[in-house]
Amino acid sequence: MSGFSDIAKQAMMQPQESLLEVKSKKNKLYIGIPKEISFQENRVPLTPLSVALLVNNGHDVLLESNAGQAANFSDKDYADQGGLIIYDTKKVYEADIIIKIAPPTMQEIEMMKPGQLLISTLQMATLKAESIQALMAKKITALSFEHLRDEGNILTVVRAMSEIVGATSILIAAEYLSNVFEGKGLMLGGITGVPPTEIVILGAGTVGEYAARTAISLGAEVKVFDPSIYKLRRLQNNIGSRVFTSVVQPIVLEKAITTCDVAIGALRAEDGRSPCIISETTVSKMKRDSVIIDVSIDQGGCFETSEVTNHTHPVFRKYDVIHYCVPNIASRVARTATYALTNIFAPILLDIGDHGGIKNVIWEKSGVRNAVYIYQGQLTNKHIGDRFSIPCKDLDLLIVSHR
């Protein structure tokens, strides 16, 4: 028996020894998380437990004081898990890696140091050439997290945020149908003997699917429109229950929109503007006190009457229809959104440490490579290059030449 335990001990020891070897190859990371200054951005990229995971792996995480406050994570929560709380914004920007939610403003880029790694959103709609040029001048390597892909080639952050936004849009609709928000006084869904509310969803992508799922579970009658039969079929299969689906046919669509209680706009464009498929005339025929939630407003919106609103003044009325057109709906549920983001970012940061730097991670992981738009000061995103007439380099060739 003792012979067996010796063998077992050896077997147990081996992985630990090899782990120690791996640890010695590691690259210590200095990660900075500044407090968001962009309007009503309540999310934070890492939760305290993810900070603990990074610290336990030998990395330093610097957080600007109150960075997580809007998502209800206090400085103490982070400090207890080994995060370093910094009161001077400039000091945070001295880290080797800056990870944040909103794209950096010009004043934030000024604080960045040459050769840093930046992970943030890109937000093509509001992107300015001067920001790109300022990042290039500092030889920054920049990743836009909305272009990160997972092992299944899914846009992982976009997917996570779309799930949140889809489900939340229905809960917002329920609020604005109630008397509390001067709505019609309807309960979203139905009860015995009372017909259910009707919800029309434009778009059968992830937002549309999660909106439909939530609305059906609350008992509403749901109709989903999308130009793509493939997307409609996928939504039908994913939801499991039969739901009314239709390709975009103007007469059928107009009838559905003018008789429904809630219309959700969730049509996305691959790049550029979302298709505006509901005219002002159709909106003017909608039922009084019905609710429009235009999730695609960050790309221009699906309804001709849509105009951007914010979390402070989220709605306006036009033709007696309540319009909710807030671009960053995920910030309403910032804590949930932060949990979703941290699950994506923490493994990437650990990979950067384990692989001895971002260069090796880009080389080995196509999903991360897809998110790079500036590499060591060279623009590598063709869309941005074409838009601002900035010369663009091939990322694969740049990595090979730097190896």
From TrEMBL:
Its EC number is 1.4.1.1. Residues 177-325 form the Alanine dehydrogenase/pyridine nucleotide transhydrogenase NAD(H)-binding domain. Residues 32-165 form the Alanine dehydrogenase/pyridine nucleotide transhydrogenase N-terminal domain. The keyword Secreted does not apply. InterPro entries: Ala_DH, Ala_DH/PNT_CS2, AlaDH/PNT_N, AlaDH/PNT_NAD(H)-bd, NAD(P)-bd_dom_sf. PROSITE patterns: ALADH_PNT_2 (PS00837). One of its GO terms (molecular function) is alanine dehydrogenase activity. It is an enzyme of class 1 (oxidoreductase). PANTHER family: ALANINE DEHYDROGENASE. This is alanine dehydrogenase.
